[in-house]
Design a protein that fits this description.
Strand content: 15-25%
CATH topology of the largest domain: Alpha-Beta Plaits
Largest sheet: 4 strands, antiparallel
CATH class of the largest domain: Alpha Beta
Distance between the termini: 72 Å
Strand order of the largest sheet: 2-3-1-4
CATH superfamily of the largest domain: Dimeric alpha+beta barrel
Number of helices: 7
Number of domains: 2
Oligomer: single chain
Order of helices and strands: HHHEHEEHHEH
Length: 179
C-alpha cells in the first residue's frame, strides 16, 4: 500500500510511479530511453523565444526580457476634505486635469482615467512611470485636488508592459475633443 503525503500528493504519486517503472527496467537501454523521454518532456515546458521579437524596438524601452517593467499604480478615491464652494471644487478639478496633461506631456503619466460611481468611493486611476512610491507621492502633491485632500491616493507597485506609454501617443491622435 502506498501512503500519499497530504501536501504533495501529485509529486509523490509521480515519484512512486517512476520508482515502480524504474524497478521494472532492467537493461541500460531501457534506462536511457526513460531518461530521454523525461528530458524531452521537460524540454517541452521550457521557455521559447518569441519569433516576432524586435531587438531594436525593445531597446527603446526599459523593460526586461519579457517586455515588462514596474510602474506605480495610483488608485484615486474621495478625500477627507469637505469643500462647500462649487467654484473652489471646479478650480481644484481644473488644476487636476492640467496636472494630468503636464505629467502626460512629460511622459511620466502613462495612463489616467476616471472610474464609474462605486460603493468604495474610488474615483480614478493613474499609472506613473517612476521607480518608487516616494517619487510618485512627491508628484501627486503637484495635483491641486490631491494636495487639498479633495482626492486621496493609494499607491501600488505594478508590473506591466513596457510599451504602455505608447498608448497616449495614439490616444492623442484619435481624441476629437479635450476636457
Amino acid at each position: 500500500m502506498t501512503v500519499v503525503h497530504p501536501k504533495f500528493p501529485i509529486q509523490q504519486n509521480v515519484v512512486v510511479l517512476l520508482s515502480r517503472l524504474f524497478n521494472k527496467l532492467v537493461s541500460m537501454k531501457n534506462f536511457l530511453t526513460l531518461l530521454f523521454v523525461i528530458l524531452l518532456i521537460s524540454g517541452i515546458q521550457a521557455q521559447t523565444e518569441n519569433p516576432a521579437y524586435d531587438k531594436e524596438l525593445a531597446g527603446k524601452f526599459e523593460g526586461d526580457d519579457y517586455g515588462m517593467k514596474s510602474y506605480i499604480f495610483v488608485l484615486l478615491k474621495t478625500g477627507p476634505a469637505k469643500i462647500e464652494s462649487k467654484t473652489v471644487v471646479d478650480s481644484l478639478f481644473a488644476g487636476h486635469l492640467q496636472n494630468i496633461r503636464r505629467l502626460a506631456e512629460a511622459e511620466i503619466l502613462v495612463l489616467a482615467g476616471p472610474l464609474t460611481q462605486n460603493d468604495n468611493q474610488y474615483r480614478g486611476i493613474f499609472i506613473l512611470d517612476v521607480k518608487t512610491t516616494s517619487e510618485a507621492e512627491e508628484l501627486l502633491q503637484t495635483d491641486p485636488a490631491i494636495k487639498e485632500k479633495l482626492l486621496d491616493a493609494e499607491l501600488f507597485t505594478w508590473y506591466g508592459a513596457t510599451a504602455l506609454g505608447e498608448y497616449l501617443k495614439v490616444q492623442e491622435k484619435i481624441t476629437k475633443f479635450n476636457f
